[in-house]
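As described in the Methods, two query proteins were run sequentially through the folding procedure within a single session, without resetting any intermediate state between them. The first query and its resulting structure tokens are shown here.
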Amino acid sequence: MTTRDYYEILGVERSADEQTLKRSYRKLALRYHPDRNPGDTVAEEKFKEAAEAYSVLSDPGKRQRYDRYGHQGVQGASGGGFDPSTFSDFSDIFGDFFGFGDLFGGGSGRRRNRPMQGDDTRYDLEIDFEDAIQGKDVELKVPRLENCGECGGTGAASHDGLVSCALCHGRGEVIYQQGFLSVRRTCNQCNGSGKIIRRPCQKCGGEGRLKVEDQLKISIPAGVDNGTRVRVSGKGRPGENGGPPGDLYVFLRVKDHRIFRREETDLFCTFTINVAQAALGDEVHVLTFDGLQTIKVPEGTQTGDRVKLRGLGVPHLSRKGRGDLYVEFDVRVPSKLTRDQRRLFEDLRRTLPAENEPQEKGIFDKVKDYFV
């Protein structure tokens, strides 16, 4: 039994609460644990010392006696000295560091017998561009596993199919003496369950699970995009030991559209006009996801000029409203002319000034030339 002050060992004030004690002890135990310091007897002693201090101060009754009488108040009691059995309550302190859940009896074997939620599953679904814009209800056939109704998920026949493990006697863990510690390890014969299947269930063949196909109807909201996932609660893998099932996540991939392209919540399309429409202006009809829309082509329109149709883009997923639709004009010059068309263009050419001078470079071109 150490003679140093327990509060000094843990580096805390005498008024420290339970969480402060636990946090300080965990830090010291991880620092001085023999697995991190093989062959270091000083570290081993510090590890024992910290464990002794925490085993006393973490117990309200022992701490009260220690505060009143000092070491004599706990000497000879179960709290005095280093007691490896106190580690049975320390699994929440160490978590999965060094496998301490097994080492100190927190017991992955014990945890295995607790109800555990099933894993989430993924289903990839490809949808049309229009469905992503407008939303749609979709029916799916999703394969999944469910607990066998015959054996309740144990994998064993209902009558005498499941027996206690002979190696761990149903505890799910085996105790070894390792140095100054009583070490508990998950039983490798039953994998911590404490049970062995003597006769497998005939319906599931001992797997405890059956493959089924769920017919689900899910609602795809308007405005989804590539990578958007839709959650279906309770349709994932079944839980163990009576735990709840996981969830199903439907990941969406949106097909490309032959006319429209998308940038976040805005839509873009290209509309072809002839040189007369571009020069004189016109009214044209554009088919959108909201039906035909009439737009004006301004006089003197050039290739690449755009018209914005506000609020005719993609709906926002997280808030109200929609993006915009941009109609980009492509001025098409005819490759073949009739005799009358040629005559008219020749008359037009005589009235228009020739603008064949090279254009001055823009600022970005000048900067580019400077660095080349």
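Immediately afterward, the second query was submitted; its sequence and tokens are:
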Amino acid sequence: MLALSPGLKRAVDIVAGTLHDYTLDELRPLLAAELPRHAGFDGWSEKAVKNAALALGVDPVVAALIFVNKAAMIDAWFSVVDEVMLTELSPTTLTIMKIRARITSLVEARLACVAPNREALRRALAILAMPQNICLAGQLGLRAADVMWRAAGDTATDYNHYSKRAILGSVYAATLTVFIDDESEGYTDTRAFLARRIEGIMEFEKVKAQLTKGPKIGFSMSRFLGQLRYPAG
């Protein structure tokens, strides 16, 4: 039997009206992908969940059980963005790129995924900026960075693992704030901003490599942080 792609299977199931047979876990990514189309108008709200459910032929009562609050809706949408990004850039495609191009392409793939729903993204970022959601915002940023670094082929398990994700997470978050208000053609302003930040990451990695190589130098975290704060010359 011919296996259907996830996207085609979703379309067939919607037409056939069989989504009522799906479990809550199976419905979550489908609704999460549909939600931003409505969140741009209705906010990340129960109304948006209801309209997304009706658009897919899902019982709104069942959909309400999946998303307990706004944060859960945004979390689920960002998970969908992770998956879409990975389908847009295959491992084979990424392998032939230099590391700088891999990271840039992965971030740009994420931006392309959310571009049709920039108002929903704007509202999502406003919610994540609330004090009660700061921890979640950090977690989502680190998760996105982790997915991107892993896709780029990073296998670090020492402190580099965490520093790379923290830096890329902050770069991605800053890029999103530029992106939501970018009216330039083809988002050229956002691309330029991202390019400058990626250059900063690459320079940072070079500094780390210089500090840690060679048996005579040794690595000192205090010296490393001191040189970052008070660069020579």
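The two ends are 67 Å apart (CA to CA). We note this only descriptively and draw no conclusion about the first query from it.
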